[in-house]
Design a protein that fits this description.
With about 260 residues, the chain is α/β, with parallel strands linked by helices. The chain is about 30% helix and about 20% strand.
């Protein structure tokens, strides 16, 4: 039996965004994403919300209605600098507060300052996080091997030119590709690059072969695909998850 995995609706490319810190500039960025039908994940520091220059807890559910809310630590502290008790509180309390504010189950995270080590990774796994994003850009569109050490494709400043061209011109017969863009919305204001970001989003939107997804939806889909059960002789396959998995089996499209 031949088997080829696809993204939902038999697409072979995925695009996701990841933005940190929850400053007021997220409001303008969300409006751009919504206008072009793009999906993103916003990593928030619950202990800094309601401060000057930051989002309010009250607006989270409405503002991010189409997007994922994820953790970034209560106070944006260096994770590797924290004693174990404080490390647990920094992320577990962040999750508790964001869940109380939104009524959602929060399962995603990004490492403040991009700092992490084995102790931090293992702690977040124990606390129930499904993924955590680093700032170690790969410069490519590879599918991540380890979601708790999730390396993005690039910072948004590197996404606007050659990488966008490469992503859009990836042959349809190639392996699955993921364009993962990260950054901070305040950078667009500081560097006067709002127009460049909007032009990038306009270029990315409406692509028939691209799946627009949040970080957590991507993780859940790939975990469902990796959890498929195959018979010993390779002639049968079964999906035990509740998430449909799209594949081509012996040249025929199948939704498992």
């Amino acid at each position: 039996m031949s088997f080829r995995l696809f993204y939902p609706e038999f697409k072979n490319k995925a695009l996701t965004f990841s933005y940190d810190d929850g400053q007021v500039f997220d409001r303008r960025l969300v409006e751009i994403f919504n206008r072009y039908g793009l999906k993103a994940t916003f990593h928030l520091n619950s202990g800094i919300l309601d401060s000057e220059g930051f989002l309010t807890k009250e607006e989270l559910s409405t503002l991010f209605e189409r997007h994922e809310i994820a953790c970034h630590g209560v106070l944006h502290e260096f994770p590797t600098h924290l004693a174990q008790e404080r490390l647990v509180r920094e992320f577990y309390q962040d999750r508790l507060t964001l869940e109380e504010c939104t009524g959602r189950i929060i399962r995603g995270c990004s490492y403040a300052y991009g700092e992490y080590d084995e102790r931090v990774v293992n702690t977040l796994k124990t606390l129930g996080f499904a993924y955590c994003r680093t700032v170690d850009s790969t410069g490519n569109f590879s599918v991540p091997r380890d979601f708790l050490r999730w390396t993005p494709s690039c910072h948004h400043n590197d996404a606007f030119g050659e990488m966008a061209d490469r992503f859009l011109n990836t042959p349809h017969f190639s392996r699955l590709s993921l364009f993962y863009v990260w950054g901070h919305s305040f950078e667009f204001d500081r560097e006067h690059t709002w127009d460049a970001m909007e032009a990038f989003c306009e270029r990315m939107h409406g692509q028939a072969d691209v799946w627009y997804t949040t970080n957590i939806d991507y993780v859940d889909y790939m975990n469902a695909a990796r959890g498929l059960l195959f018979s010993a002789d390779g002639t049968r396959v079964q999906n035990l998850s509740s998430i449909p998995v799209y594949a081509e089996i012996d040249g025929e499209p199948r939704i498992l």
